[in-house]
């Protein structure tokens, strides 16, 4: 009987290993399948982009062929002035994102845990958020000048709200059973916040942080549109005025790549830090 029991345990363990390996292989196959589909869609877009102007469906002045745009991108990044403009925008986006995230986290935590503060100040926050931010750009330039400071402030103004609202909502929707358990254990408010509220709200908070990154990029570019002498937004505005549409698309591609790289880094950091999130929740 003992030998039979050992054989059953060994067989069960082997089946579990085989099932695990099969699951890993299936996930890998699914991943490659989706990457292949993404590549196919991208290739289709590039082919349409290439042949629409070449076949006369769209004027090349409006939409240059994809290959000409890529050549314009290559020549642009080879220019001596390009790196200076790129670093200016990168600096504005980075500090605007960092400052906006910090302000959003602090404000969201305070509003999420202090109910009187939320009831008193939340209408003013909503009213400020309802203002079209582009109308603030001339005012910010008047206050902070044509340098990077006004663009950083613009990025902060646009990017803080997603972090703020996600943090506040996340803290307000902590499961009641978890809070009741901490009360039964006589945990202090700080212990409850650190061990229950913060981990529960963290996935939603990080979603707001990822959204804030794209908003910071928008804020910096809007600020450079309104008034600047350097930065990718300044280049974009200049090339558009000169009808260098191939260079306009080149700058757009660079901005898109910048935002995508930063977003993927945050996505990776999200998966590493918020390891307790449920499968399928992003």
Low-confidence stretches: none
Q: What is the helix/strand order?
A: HHHHHHHHHH
Taking the sheet with the most strands, its summary is: none
What gyration radius follows from the Cα positions, in whole Å? 26 Å
Task: Report the helical percentage.
Answer: over 70%
- CATH-scheme architecture of the largest domain: Orthogonal Bundle
Could you please say which CATH topology of the largest domain applies here? MetI-like fold
The structure class reads: mainly alpha
Provide the residue-averaged pLDDT.
83
Oligomer: single chain
Q: Gap between N and C termini, in Å? A: 49 Å
Instruction: Give the number of domains.
Output: 2
Number of strands: 0
Report the β-strand fraction as a percent range. under 5%
Number of helices: 10
CATH superfamily of the largest domain: MetI-like
CATH class of the largest domain: Mainly Alpha
Globally, the shape reads: globular
Description of the structure:
The protein has ten helices and no strands. It has 282 residues and is an all-alpha fold. The chain folds into two domains: 1-62; 66-273, MetI-like fold. α2 (66-77) packs across α10 (245-273) and α3 (82-113) packs across α9. The radius of gyration is 26 Å and the shape is globular.
